[in-house]
């Protein structure tokens, strides 16, 4: 299935910065991604969580990009992974499911945009991670405070 992403005429796709996944993705694409996250949140399984545990860092190691939005996505993904599997600090059940659903989308080969598309392949992943970030923001703030981490590294 081919995905056509509308770009404003004056946009140079090689200069995508943090947050521009929000501007570039159409409202229809954003809604599809919001729906995918909500659906997976409802149906996330323990087997999915085991897959996340095995695959997330393998995929993170493969990402080579200087684009700011990709770097932010990587750092946020690492923190969400750390939160999901932290044995000392447990996430609330709803937050755990949301984080797991976002990470599962991130590792999935069946995403909206193929990760192999240079410059664009991580737009959908970045948007999903941003959605998770917004949904569990208070849990993230608490986690960062407890762990003594600087939140500016993730903003």
Present the secondary structure layout.
Blueprint (H helix, E strand, L loop, with lengths): L19 H5 L2 H17 L2 H17 L5 H18 L7 H15 L15 H13 L1 H11 L8
Helix pairs in contact: 2-5, 2-6, 3-4, 3-5, 4-5, 4-6, 5-6
Task: Describe it.
The chain has about 160 residues and is mainly alpha-helical. It has 7 helices and no strands. It starts with 19 loop residues before the first helix and ends in an 8-residue tail after the last helix.
Total helical elements: 7
Q: Indicate how many domains the architecture comprises.
A: 1
Q: What percent of the residues sit in helical stretches (DSSP H or I)? A: 55-70%
Overall pLDDT score: 85
End-to-end CA span: 33 Å
**Poorly predicted runs of 5 or more residues:** 1-16
Q: What is the N-to-C order of secondary-structure elements (H for helix, E for strand)?
A: HHHHHHH
* Count of strand segments: 0
Instruction: Return the structural class.
Output: mainly alpha
Please describe the biggest sheet, giving its number of strands, its sense, and whether it closes into a barrel: none
Radius of gyration using CA atoms only: 15 Å
Beta strand %: under 5%
The global form is globular
Summarize the entry for a quick read.
With 155 residues, the chain is mostly helical. It has helices at residues 20-24, 27-43, 46-62, 68-85, 93-107, 123-135, 137-147.
Throw out a few tags for this protein.
single chain, 155 residues, mainly alpha, 7 helices, 0% strand, globular
């Amino acid at each position: 299935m081919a995905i056509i992403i509308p770009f404003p005429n004056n946009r140079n796709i090689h200069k995508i910065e943090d947050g521009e996944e929000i501007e570039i993705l159409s409202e229809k694409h954003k809604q599809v991604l919001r729906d995918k996250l909500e659906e997976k949140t409802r149906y996330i399984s323990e087997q999915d969580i085991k897959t996340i545990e095995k695959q997330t860092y393998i995929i993170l190691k493969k990402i080579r990009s200087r684009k700011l939005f990709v770097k932010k996505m990587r750092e946020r993904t690492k923190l969400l992974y750390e939160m999901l599997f932290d044995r000392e600090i447990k996430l609330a059940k709803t937050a755990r499911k949301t984080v797991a659903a976002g990470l599962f989308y991130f590792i999935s080969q069946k995403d909206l945009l193929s990760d192999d598309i240079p410059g664009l392949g991580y737009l959908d992943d970045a948007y999903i991670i941003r959605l998770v970030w917004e949904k569990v923001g208070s849990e993230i703030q608490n986690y960062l405070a407890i762990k003594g981490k600087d939140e500016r590294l993730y903003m």
